Amino acid sequence: MANPPAQTRGNPPPAGRAPLPSGLLIGADVRIGLGWCGGEDDVAVIGRPDLAALYAAALACAGRGAIIVDGEAAFAAGMRALAEQLQ
Fold this sequence. Notes:
The protein is mostly helical. The protein is 54% helix and 11% strand.
């Protein structure tokens, strides 16, 4: 590689960007996921907000929108709904 990314030279990634290995994994994850589901609808991304934002950026590069749902809030809401059903 004639001019490797700054991250591979020991420099931190720019603010709001994932380290190179994480970015590659997220990109591959999005590519495979979109290959399975196809379509043009927005994709629900459930997880930690900072990580979900990286997935949303990768989806945007693939021409898809994202609906970000905080994973902790979704879990808490699901547990509340389950508790109500069990009463």
